[in-house]
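Reviewer comment 2.1 asked that we show a complete input and output for one of the modelled complexes. We chose the magnesium ion case, as it is the one discussed in the main text.
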Amino acid sequence: MSEKMSLFARLRQGMSRSRQQMAQVMEMEGDDNTPLSEDYFDSLLDAMILSDMGAVCAEEAMDKLRMVVKEKKLRTNGEAKAALKEILVGFLQVEKPSLKWPMVILTVGVNGVGKTTTIGKLALRFQGLGRTIVLCAADTFRAAAADQLQVWAERARCPIVRHKEGADPAGVVFDGVQSAKAQKADLLIVDTAGRLHNKKNLIDELAKINRVIERELPDASRENLLVLDATTGQNAVIQAKEFSKAANITGLVLTKLDGTAKGGIILAIKRELGIPVKFIGVGEGIDDLQPFNPHAFADGLFNDLPEDFEE
Ligand code: GDP
Ligand code: MG
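Response of the prediction step:
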């Protein structure tokens, strides 16, 4: 199974709920060959609102679409929908950064969004690409957090640095960095605790962790990934704003797109904060992390993923 096929299949499955709703909305206005009408514009707008991308973003896309339709003299539903997809892809498009080693990936996000699971999946992905990895359990809030990371470390056959429950997270990161240096590892992935009930504490802690990494590994490339649960809808935008104050977030991982997900939230966050999505989570298994593909995503939003791509 190629990665592309798997991506389509999982995306189609993952985004099924919002897609079904959108398909219902849009089918009322005929098929792709039906002459374009004001009603079809309305149903495209409804479809976007259903995806949770936020009214402002949806209106902006509609304004652009009306301009393109006029300029290019588009005449059918299908032409308008294709143009809208291109507009949304344009909203999401970012330069593809080249990977530079060694790299430190710091994951942040509130409890339960899928940080530890994402780290496990990332470790397996990079291990499969021949990279050497060290995991660092800086979520010292509960012993179970390090235990959970350890299970993933065993699966990915990579070392893990952990301390006792309640230990200083920055201290664990210090040791993690030393271990990564000693082993000349390509990649250090750091798990953190996601408590937001004390914002100052969280911000201070992340700042301290950042200082340790900067001081001890000044030449490493850095990714600070904010992990967000797609099923939380607009609340994810609030989390993105909070965590952007605490750390220089370089990318998002949107998890649980396989659930009742409404993936449009990606567009809302990109629009408001300019942070690109790097990966999407589409399940709890080790293979269920995919690099983000804006084209497949836009197709998925409008129910246009190829039907013959089955797992
Ligand atoms: P953390 O508190 O942020 O570290 O979150 P965890 O990694 O412990 O994940 C919380 C729960 O979400 C676990 O039950 C995971 O299996 C589940 N989970 C994580 N990512 C995904 C995903 O992409 N899809 C689904 N369905 N579940 C996920
Ligand atoms: Mg965790």
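The radius of gyration is 21 Å. We note this here for comparison with the apo prediction described in Section 3.2.
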